[in-house]
Specification:
This protein has about 350 residues and is an alpha/beta fold. The chain has 15 helices and five strands. It folds into two domains: about 5-195, P-loop containing nucleotide triphosphate hydrolases (Rossmann fold); about 240-344. Strands 2-3-4-1-5 form a five-stranded parallel β-sheet, with helices on both faces. Strand 2, helix 5 and strand 3 (about 140-145) form a beta-alpha-beta unit.
């Protein structure tokens, strides 16, 4: 497992490179397998969809499939679960494959934390990767996880490779928000849209992980997860359900009671080393605003919808600035909740 994967992997999750099962995306798997077998598959596939629904797992499953059947016309029309004992699978899982490169945000050597973006230095690894393996007949596959995190220089460097892809190369480009990618990158990829998991598929995926949800919390967790395995893990293993309950209580309170509740919630989500829960809270808060903005728009209250959209943009910019300058998270959370309580 790579250092990047170790740093980003949620407690209770399985690394996509090591995961032998995928739920809910049979049609997408079959499409990739049949396109590959036909010899008409695109050299770059943009796998789109919300976080935590299986995009990376699909990419690695397809990579295992292609490397197992390097002659496309001899490949089956469906993708089977990879054999965890197969040498190619073990090499990919260990980040030691000569035929697959996983590009993700690198770890900062000084802080030990992930950098905020995939840098151009990471993309240069792709150039070396193709150069080192150019004499083989195997496919060379690059998984970009995620393209949303490419900084401008890295995105332009990837674009140059996509414009003139090396022979027998393949790119699996993952994105949570494809609208934010360079249009020129999107135009050079074949889009493959994945939807959030249906409830039965989500239950199977959580069962595969061995994630246990208390019966009295299951309904609430499944509804709040929105078809995302990652979201379900954050809700159950990271205290996300409690944070949502506390958030709702804060917005419902008034006066001194509300101020006390705001500080208590800020202490919980801004605690040192609690990056996952902090990110969960920020996402939940901004999605809460977006939901109210949509409701206002549907109700025909355009002024209200516009005000909430401006609030969403303002808070998002504030959070990004706080992260960029390493400002105190507790104060950021207090300020954010205060604005929400005032304007919602």
């Amino acid at each position: 497992m790579s250092a990047e994967t170790e740093t980003t992997l949620l407690d209770g999750a399985i690394s996509p490179a090591e995961n032998t099962r995928l739920f809910g995306h049979t049609e997408a798997e079959d499409f990739l397998a049949q396109s590959y077998r036909s010899g008409k598959g695109h050299h770059a596939v943009l796998i789109e969809g919300p976080e935590g629904i299986g995009k990376a797992t699909l990419a690695f499953r397809f990579a295992n499939h292609v490397l197992k059947y390097p002659i496309a016309t001899e490949a089956p029309e469906t993708i089977s679960d990879p054999d965890p004992q197969a040498p190619a699978f073990r090499q990919i899982a260990a980040g030691a494959s000569h035929n697959l490169l996983h590009l993700a945000r690198p770890v900062d050597a000084k802080s030990g934390k992930l950098k905020t973006a995939i840098t151009v230095d990471e993309v240069r690894r792709a150039g070396k990767f193709f150069g080192q393996t150019s004499g083989t007949e195997s496919w060379r596959i690059v998984v970009i996880d995620t393209a949303d995190e490419l900084n401008r220089s890295a995105a332009n460097a990837i674009l140059k490779i996509l414009e003139e892809p090396p022979k027998r190369s393949m790119f699996m480009v993952l994105s949570h928000a494809p609208g934010k990618l360079l249009p020129t990158i999107r135009s050079r990829c074949m889009p493959l849209v994945l939807r959030p998991l249906a409830e039965d598929d989500l239950k199977q995926a959580l069962g595969h992980l061995g994630l246990s949800i208390a019966p009295q919390l299951e309904r609430k967790a499944l509804d709040a997860a929105g078809g995302s395995v990652a979201q379900a893990i954050k809700l159950v293993n990271y205290g996300g359900l409690e944070i949502i309950e506390a958030f709702d209580s804060v917005l419902a309170a008034r006066g001194p009671q509300q101020r006390k509740a705001i500080h208590k919630l800020a202490d919980a989500v801004a605690a040192k080393g609690n990056d996952t829960l902090y990110g969960f809270f920020i996402d939940h808060a901004t999605q809460h605003i977006s939901s109210h903005a949509r409701q206002a728009a549907v109700a025909g209250d355009i002024n209200r919808a516009f005000q909430l959209s401006e609030l969403h943009s303002s808070l998002t910019e504030r959070v990004n600035t706080a992260d960029a300058y390493n400002l105190e998270r507790k104060q950021t959370v207090i300020s954010l909740i205060g604005d929400l309580a005032e304007k919602l």
